[in-house]
Amino acid sequence: MCNTAITMPQTASTETGFDEWFVTAINGGALMLMVSIGHRTGLFDTMSEMSWTNSKELAEKAGLNERYVREWLGAMATGGVVEVDESDCYRLPEEYGQFLTRDTELDNLAVIAQYIAVLGSVEDDIVECFYKGGGVPYEKYDRFHEVMAEDSGMTVLDALEDHILPLVPGLTEKLQNGISVLDVGCGRGRAMLKMAGLFPKSTFKGLDLSEEAIGWAKSKAREKGLENVEFEICDASDFDQTAEPNKYDFVTTFDAIHDQANPLAVLRGINRTLKPGGTYLMQDIHSTGHVHKNMNHPLGPALYTVSCMHCMSVSLAQGGDGLGAMWGREKAQELLQKAGFEDIQIYQLEHDIQNDYYVMKK
Hints:
Elements: H1 18-40, H2 43-48, H3 55-62, H4 66-78, E1 83-84, E2 90-91, H5 94-97, H6 110-120, H7 123-132, H8 144-164, H9 171-177, E3 180-184, H10 190-198, E4 203-208, H11 211-224, E5 229-233, H12 239-242, E6 248-254, H13 263-273, E7 274-285, H14 300-317, H15 328-338, E8 344-347, E9 355-361
Parallel strand pairs: 3-4, 3-6, 4-5, 6-7
Antiparallel strand pairs: 1-2, 7-9, 8-9
Helix pairs in contact: 1-6, 3-4, 6-8, 8-10
């Protein structure tokens, strides 16, 4: 029985009319598609190198079609991303550009906008799932691993050495001296590639279900000349049985467990493959398992959408649990304990409003 206590999200409060909120939301959604295009075509990067410019000059410098650039500028200007004057010349303000370009010390927020288009590409498949159940398999999501790799570059790669690894006391020194490391659900393997470069005395291995992602990781390892890292295509659904016992000193998962078909089996496999005294570090979504407690989550609508249209659906497509991205700390701790982890420390990092970091010793 539901009670009558109602919590309204700030974005759709009764203080501003729902119709006004809806217009703002639909404009925002449309704008994200155009921001994604601006990122992929390098238009933001090109504009950041120019002062006031018109569509012809910008298109020529970016090597793009002027007619499409002109319409894109219209969306950027009316959306408040770029400035426009009376002669239809445009400028990307420096204070905005630092959040939208590749060569910046700040997070490139345009990367995140790409999720809207990627998820939209499977809308028909998701609608069918609403009627028939089941899920949408990994291979249906064009570019998802590419976008995830860019995203993790901000939340994981840039913070790995100075913020994430130090969550485990003494770990950096062990990596410098030489230990064995495994990353389950590694995607394109960028975390393993970076650590392999930083710690040449240690050995690294990445596992992922995606043939495309593993192929990219292997190619990049060869390109960098890294001989202390390897990658393998692996369905971890039965990892509790197939994981090699007492093999690794350090195991990581970055935003991967909630996507798994059988997350408990994966966690049990991680416990199984850790050496006694080894450490497991799990990055996963910061949330609770209750919608009413997530009402003020800064990324609530986005994360539930990604969950419905990717994380949950990919798991269900494998006949899995379909936990979804917003499975919450409560469920995460429950499964970790069932997998045999007892002392579970949970951290949040200032740069990452999206994730929690769980640290466990075997």
